[in-house]
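Before the break, one more example. Copy the sequence into your notebook; we will annotate it together after we see the structure.
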Amino acid sequence: MLFNSIEFVVFLPIVFAIYWLIGSARIKSQNLFLLASSYVFYGWWDYRFLALIAFSSVVDFVVGQQLHRTEKFRKGWLALSLTVNLGLLGFFKYYNFFVDNFVEAFRFFGQAPDISTLSIILPVGISFYTFQTLSYTIDIYRRKLGPTKDFVGFMAYVSFFPQLVAGPIERATKLLPQFFEKRKFTYAQGRDGMRQILWGLFKKIVVADTCAIFANDIFSNSAEYGSATLLIGALCFTFQIYGDFSGYSDIAIGTAKLFGFNLMTNFRYPYFSRDIAEFWRRWHISLSSWFRDYVYIPLGGSNGTRKRTLINIFVIFLVSGFWHGANWTFIVWGGLNALYFVPIFLLKKNRNNLDHVDYFWPGWNNFSHILFTFSLTVLAWVFFRAENVGHAFDYIVGIFSFTGGKWHGGDYLPLAALMLIIEWTMRKRGFGLDFSAHVPKWLRWTLYSMCVWLILFFFGEEQAFIYFQF
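Here is what the structure looks like once it is written out:
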């Protein structure tokens, strides 16, 4: 079920009404209802994958219990959780990728092994809920968290529908306890939730889906276009992926607020970053911090030699790229971001920009750094969007060839500019419509009305979120 669908417009108020009619005094009943609702939400795409998420949940619930009870076989139980979760993820997401590359490697040496790929449907959200369940077993193994005995509460935590499909990837230490606390509905939380949902829908429908029209056409027919149009295509995708993914996160966080839950912030205005290190502190924060805590630090982080730290940096970026998809384009994208990061790290400037610019006009120094970082990001997104590595290189060469060619303008880029203006103004708050009390009521409602009108105007065929494929 898509957030930007008529089905969800019907689904959400029904679930909301029944949930609060059950009452906050009956936490277990609320959790059971959330579990059932989440399975309906997830099964709307393909009910067969419900067995997969249920199996993963049961395994990790049992492993969590065993990790607490035993001292002798704790590594074995953790290995079981890692094997099951990463094994399922690897099979559904990477089996055909490895088979294809294995066969191509042998063909290079004149051999042709008879290994065929499979028609595998990637379960929606498997990369997200897999990491979320792993945080539970790993944190119990590290003794940072005690296991829960409430099976229904744990199942609801894994499948919580607002963030099930594309995050934020919550930690068990933060989200799981909320399923066992009394939850109250307040006007303030409901208001903030609705405003964040509205802003997320604006970014998805008005910005991302409209920019996608040009991005899809230009990338699909890049050989026909000149430099300026190719640059516009790259810019359109840059705003498409941000509006699409951060829009999903806003809707997820806002929806969770309606049910009394607080999810972590997943984006903090990354396109206003002054260096690539700041960008990665602001983009897909739940995934970046997951890799930091569960991969980078266990590898040694930055505590070893400089050579070892550089290796760890490349590992974390390459793994992050591979997490996004079974294509060499994502691995190159990750490697390119590592190359961006290394000079900043070597100069010990990776912790220079920890907060946003204080004043409205950033000044020429900050502005030039923001523009430079944004340009590097646009270039990297070409690899993320391209069909293959060769296509990406041809596209970038086309941008810098300064040729004429067929013109295809970015008619919807002003909508992206409007989004940036609003977010720059609100960059010290949680999201674009997160107004403080001193903002005049007439101005708030003018912006609400504008967002609603634009959403209705541009709403057409339902467009899936980009990160559903990851």
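Residues 188-274+353-469 form one domain. The CA atoms of residues 235 and 375 lie 9 Å apart. Try to locate both features in your own notes.
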